[in-house]
């Protein structure tokens, strides 16, 4: 099938679509022939992308009442219940609310939902207790919704990206003491030796929406293999016990 026809005649709504992974998803669905409406709280960025991608329609919208970006690396004692709640609003409850609001329509149109979770929701991540907890919940909620909605023919899947080179990644790296070292570490975390690109997440989303018609409750890892194999996992302060040769 021609790339421009894979999702022709369908309407796709993307949240947080002005930049990064969301923008990659907007582009991929426009290329697949869908009509794409995207929202973002960044009105300037959204308008700019709307101009760049003819066929897309931007609507300014904050998917939470008090959304915030994910916090920088935090040890457990540095986290707060307030910060955790804000992240829950953004990463989990916004998805829950949007899903509830769109289900009546999706049941009629036999549509599908793709949530963006994260690899770390399954494998954990240091200094990110709140973020990891919200993403693990997104993956779990995807499966629970998938079970309940399958009777209506609505499929609900999620994508768990690993390291994807986006403005968010760049900003988080810039906030560390040695940004180049942070970026190098992030790059070497993948057996493929690079970070992913937003359009690669977009391609996975188009696949789930258009071709993966027997998949529901699926967590699709788009990670370059970051979760594979052993690696150095003891942090510098950990007492190590190395066996000696006899
Ligand atoms: N980049 C990665 O390596 C990576 C890895 C795993 C998971 N993820 C997840 O992918 C998603 C996108 O990440 P990204 O790296 O593209 O981030 P990004 O910051 O580059 O882009 C996020 C977009 O969402 C918009 N946004 C934020 N809060 C909003 C709100 N309340 N209402 C509407 N729009 C809002 C921002 O304005 C921005 O345009 C996030 O859920 C993130 O946790 C990213």
Detailed description of the structure:
It is a single chain. This protein has 246 residues and is an alpha/beta fold. The chain folds into two domains: 1-61, 3-Layer(aba) Sandwich (Rossmann fold); 69-222, NAD(P)-binding Rossmann-like Domain (Rossmann fold, 3-Layer(aba) Sandwich), CATH 3.40.50.720. It has eight helices and six strands; from the N terminus they run E-H-E-H-E-H-E-H-H-E-H-H-H-E. It has helices at residues 20-31, 43-52, 81-109, 120-123, 129-149, 167-174, 179-188, 198-211, and strands at residues 11-15, 35-40, 56-60, 112-116, 155-161, 219-222. The strands form two sheets. The chain has a three-stranded parallel sheet with strand order 1-2-3, covered by helices on one side. The chain has a three-stranded parallel sheet with strand order 4-5-6, with helices on both faces. It is globular and about 65 Å long. Residues 15-16, 18-22, 39-42, 45, 61-64, 67, 90, 116, 118, 161, 163-164, 166-169 line the site of nicotinamide-adenine-dinucleotide.
The largest beta-sheet arranges its strands as 1-2-3
Tell me the domain tally: 2
| Residue-averaged pLDDT | 94
Strand segment tally: 6
**Second CATH tier, the architecture of the largest domain:** 3-Layer(aba) Sandwich
In the CATH hierarchy, the third-tier topology of the largest domain is known as: Rossmann fold
Query: Which spans of ≥5 residues are poorly predicted at pLDDT below 50?
Result: 66-70
Characterize the main sheet: 3 strands, parallel
The total count of helices amounts to 8
Going by CATH, what is the homologous superfamily of the largest domain?
A: NAD(P)-binding Rossmann-like Domain
User: What structural class results from the helix and strand content?
Assistant: alpha/beta
| Helix content range | 40-55%
Whole-angstrom Rg: 19 Å
User: Which ions and ligands are bound to the chains?
Assistant: nicotinamide-adenine-dinucleotide
CATH class of the largest domain: Alpha Beta
| Shape, principal axes of CA atoms | globular
- What share of the residues does DSSP label as strand, in percent? 5-15%
């Amino acid at each position: 099938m021609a790339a421009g026809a894979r999702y022709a005649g369908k309407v796709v709504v993307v949240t947080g679509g002005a930049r990064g992974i969301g923008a990659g998803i907007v582009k991929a669905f426009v290329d697949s022939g869908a009509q794409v409406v995207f929202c973002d709280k960044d009105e300037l960025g959204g308008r700019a992308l709307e101009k760049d991608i003819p066929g897309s329609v931007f609507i300014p919208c904050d998917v939470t009442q008090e959304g915030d970006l994910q916090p920088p690396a935090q040890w457990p004692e540095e986290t707060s219940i307030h910060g955790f709640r804000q992240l829950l609003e953004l990463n989990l409850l916004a998805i829950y609310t949007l899903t509830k609001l769109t289900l009546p329509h999706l049941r009629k149109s036999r549509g599908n939902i793709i949530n963006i979770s994260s690899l770390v929701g399954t494998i954990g991540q240091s200094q990110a207790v709140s973020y990891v907890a919200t993403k693990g919940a997104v993956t779990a909620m995807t499966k629970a919704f998938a079970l309940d909605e399958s009777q209506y023919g609505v499929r609900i899947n999620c994508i768990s990206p690993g390291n994807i080179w986006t403005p968010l990644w760049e900003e988080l790296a810039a906030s560390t003491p040695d940004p180049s070292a942070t970026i190098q570490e992030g790059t070497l975390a993948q057996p493929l030796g690079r970070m992913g690109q937003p359009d690669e997440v977009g391609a996975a989303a188009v696949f789930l929406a258009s071709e993966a018609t027997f998949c529901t409750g699926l967590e699709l890892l788009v990670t370059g293999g970051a979760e594979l194999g052993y690696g150095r996992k003891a942090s510098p302060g950990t007492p190590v016990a190395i066996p000696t040769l006899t």
